[in-house]
Amino acid sequence: MIELSPGDLSSYRARTYALLPELKLKSAEDAVDFVNRRGFVFFWPIKGVELPSLWTAAAGDRPVPDEHDDPGHMTWGWKDELLGKRRWYYARILRRRNTMISLVSAPYFYALSPNYGDPENDYLEQYEQGLMTLETRLVFEALLKEGPLDTLALRRAARLTSSDSTGRFNKALDDLQVEFKVLPVGISEAGAWRYAFIYDLTTRHFPEIQEQARFISEPEARRFLLRQYFISLGAAPIEQAARLFGWTLEHIHHAIKALIKAKVLVEDIAIPNQKGVWVATRELLDQD
User: Fold this and answer.
1) Is residue 128 part of a domain?
2) Which of 54, 234, 249, 288 has the fewest beta carbons closer than 10 A?
3) Rounded to whole angstroms, how far apart are CA atoms 54 and 79?
4) pLDDT digits (tens, 9 = 90+) for 197-237
5) What is the pLDDT of residue 190?
6) pLDDT digits (tens, 9 = 90+) for 59-118
7) Where residue 235 sits, what CATH number does that domain have?
8) Going by C-beta distance under 8 Å and a sequence separation of 6 or more, which residues neighbour residue 159?
9) What sections of the chain are H helices per DSSP?
10) Is 218 helix (H, G, I), strand (E, B) or coil?
11) What are the backbone dihedrals phi and psi of residue 267, each rounded to the nearest 5 degrees, phi first?
């Protein structure tokens, strides 16, 4: 058993989360570089979920304030500025929260999605098998037929404009994003707030992603993403990783065993006052 001090773990994450003053993000280009280094990050920090975020890398490890003039909210401008620019993949993905994914990592996520190479017909099979709701099908078909649409136009095209359909429409949008079928690609001055996302099909906005993912097996994809996750965190309980990705413990254990064999990860890690079965990266254990 290798005992790891909380201080060593915090020191490691201060670097990978860009919490040190000299690593602070100051521009949209810095943000893109950060996402490329980490592979995937949250937009905002999520309570109870350990992962780097664009907010903390730019504003420091502090709560997200409600005040719109807080300088940390420059991250919102970066996100809007880069929508549709294909500098990263942005959508509600991990834990159904806003996630930035590097273009290198995106095909590995896509390889684990329920997409089989024929987006214009695969969704019908999902629907017929009871794996897709009617609302989700209607939203996808609206984008398939009409092209990119802002949120209000999309609701009209999907015939989901009634007040009692709001929750089902939002869930459908989330479901489609989690499955790498749609994503926001721009901003429209629509609605009362003069601010609405424009959505498009993933395979139309990133037409190369299917070919990039074609020869990535599911075990390979899990190993790749899990390696990036642990390199970002340094160490984490196995169950925590399973919850983040939504994978079964069996899949997690297979991937971790392969990474241990490849000498990427080290098992039998103990951290004082921490529960669970922990695994760590060699980078963390070898840090000065």
Assistant:
1) yes
2) 288
3) 10
4) 999 999 999 999 999 999 999 999 999 999 999 999 999 99
5) 83
6) 999 988 888 778 778 999 999 999 999 999 999 999 999 999 999 999 999 999 999 888
7) 1.10.10.10
8) 138
9) 6-16, 28-38, 54-59, 74-82, 106-111, 119-128, 134-146, 151-157, 166-178, 202-205, 209-213, 218-233, 238-245, 249-261, 282-286
10) helix
11) -95, -175
